[in-house]
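We were asked to recover a plausible sequence for a given structure. The inputs and outputs are reproduced exactly as logged, with field labels preserved.

PROBLEM: sequence recovery
POSITIONS: 362
GIVEN STRUCTURE:
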């Protein structure tokens, strides 16, 4: 979302720069070359060196709006605003896509009693986050919901990667893929249990970083215990996911909690049929439209049954089942469809700061 919003905002004439607070400088690969990018190398929430770098960057670039992705980064901005190291004339837009919202809707004390006062505009990606924001004490007029979307141009013309060679999957065996950061809410343990119940042959790639190293290690141990070695491969993070998806036959999303999730759009664009839990605004929207493959979050038996039905299909039936995916994604989930709403959001955040200035002047 950071990269795609930045690219499309620049296309619309906005002056944009991107600041990554930790070490995700790999995102620069898809960022337009003309957009300045900065990396703070932040090590913790209140890393003083990272905070100092951010203050210097804001003072030198003098932005009108800080579009802050996520609550951790927002806590840093709120901290700096409290110390008046970020001028009050800089609007703060909190873009919240908290993925654990279905599992944990609590409002952190630091947000309720302190940081929320620095939110000039709150933009959530699902109705569940609207409810959370209202409960956190953010005024109704400062809350917007803008669903996730992707810049579909990023997925055009991607060469197909020979995904089978990564795991040694035979041509006559269906190859699946999961793309996620490996942490408990993503339900990889549930997925592995569901896979262990399958009678049909399969191979599955699990693509993404170990967002929770202890949980990721437990999942790898589970692969051995369930006798899935040789059929499951943890690839780690990859920068060629769109091309890798095109080399697979089906996709999976076993999450217990999501706010989006964007990965379902990627699966659709690749023309992959999938089995997914009904978690997040995008999943709910796709299910309401009649798309098949959704099961309740946390229901291992339902997931296993839906997966068994999917992987038992002949290869041509699998392709047929996913054929409408690119058209569904293009019709409703291109980020260009959301840019009018984002322009309005930026204007609203800017007006809020202008009103503060006027009140202060009086």
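RECOVERED SEQUENCE:
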């Amino acid at each position: 979302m950071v990269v795609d919003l930045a690219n499309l905002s620049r296309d619309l004439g906005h002056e944009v720069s991107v600041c990554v607070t930790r070490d995700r400088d790999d995102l620069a690969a898809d960022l337009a070359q003309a957009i300045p990018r900065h990396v703070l190398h932040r090590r913790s929430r209140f890393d003083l060196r990272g905070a100092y770098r951010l203050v210097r960057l804001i003072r030198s670039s003098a932005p009108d709006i800080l579009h802050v992705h996520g609550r951790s980064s927002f806590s840093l901005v709120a901290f700096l605003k409290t110390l008046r190291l970020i001028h009050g004339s800089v609007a703060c837009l909190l873009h919240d896509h908290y993925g654990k919202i279905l599992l944990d809707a609590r409002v952190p004390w630091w947000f309720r009693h302190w940081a929320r006062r620095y939110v000039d505009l709150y933009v959530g990606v699902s109705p569940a986050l609207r409810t959370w924001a209202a409960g956190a004490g953010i005024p109704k007029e400062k809350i917007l919901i803008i669903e996730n979307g992707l810049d579909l141009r990023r997925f055009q013309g991607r060469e197909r990667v020979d995904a089978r060679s990564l795991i040694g999957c035979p041509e006559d065996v269906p190859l699946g893929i999961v793309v996620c950061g490996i942490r408990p809410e993503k339900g990889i343990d549930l997925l592995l249990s569901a896979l262990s119940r399958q009678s049909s042959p399969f191979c599955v790639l699990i693509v993404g970083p170990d967002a929770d190293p202890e949980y990721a290690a437990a999942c790898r141990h589970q692969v051995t215990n369930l006798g899935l070695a040789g059929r499951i491969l943890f690839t780690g993070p990859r920068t060629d996911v769109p091309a890798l998806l095109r080399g697979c036959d089906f996709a999976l999303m076993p999450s217990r909690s999501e706010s989006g999730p964007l990965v379902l759009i990627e699966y659709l664009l690749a023309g992959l049929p999938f089995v997914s839990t009904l978690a997040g605004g995008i999943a709910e929207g796709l299910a309401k439209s009649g798309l098949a493959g959704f099961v309740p979050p946390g229901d291992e038996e339902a997931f296993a049954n839906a997966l068994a039905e999917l992987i038992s299909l002949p290869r041509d039936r699998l392709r047929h089942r996913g054929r409408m995916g690119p058209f569904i994604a293009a019709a409703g989930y291109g980020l260009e469809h959301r840019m009018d709403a984002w322009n309005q959001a930026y204007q609203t955040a800017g007006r809020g700061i202008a009103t503060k200035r006027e009140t202060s002047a009086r």
